[in-house]
Amino acid sequence: MLNQYDIDYIIKCLKDGQSIPGEYKYSLFPTIQIEYELTYAGKMRKEDILSDTDEISNVPLQIEKTYNGDEHPSSNDDWKNLLVFGDNLQVLKTIYYDKDPIIAKKIKNKIKLVYIDPPFGTGDKYDGNKGQSAYSAKRKGADLVEFLRRRLILLREVMADDGVIFVRMDYHFGHYIKIIMDEVFGKNNLKNEIVINRVKRSLRNLTRFNVSTESVFFYSKSSDYYFNNPETPRKCNFCGKEKEPIWDDLTSPGLRNPPERVIFGKTYLPRRGRHFTYTQEKINAFERQGRLRLNPDIPYYDLEGKKIEARPEYLQTDSIPIDNNWTDIKGYAFANKYPTENSEELLKRVIESCTQEGDLIMDCFAGSGTTLAVAEKLNRRWIGCDIGKLSMYTIQKRLLEISRSKDMANPKKEYKHNTKAFSVVTAGLYDLGKVFSLTEDKYKHFVKNLFDIEDIDKDNINGVPIDGEKRGYFVKIYPYWDEKMRNADVDSEYLHDLHRYIGDRIKSRFYIVAPANNVAFVNSYYEIDSIRYYFLKIPYQVIKELHNQDFKKIKQPQSQGQINDLDEAVGFHFIREPEVETALTNIDGNYYITLKKFMSDYNMDEKGKEINNFESLSMVLIDSDYSRDFIMKDYYFTKDLISKSKKSSTLHKNISDDVRKELKNANIINIPIKNPGKKVLAIYIDIYGNEFKEEFSVGVQ
Question: Which CATH superfamily is 31-232+324-389+405-427 part of?
Answer without folding.
Answer: Vaccinia Virus protein VP39 (3.40.50.150)
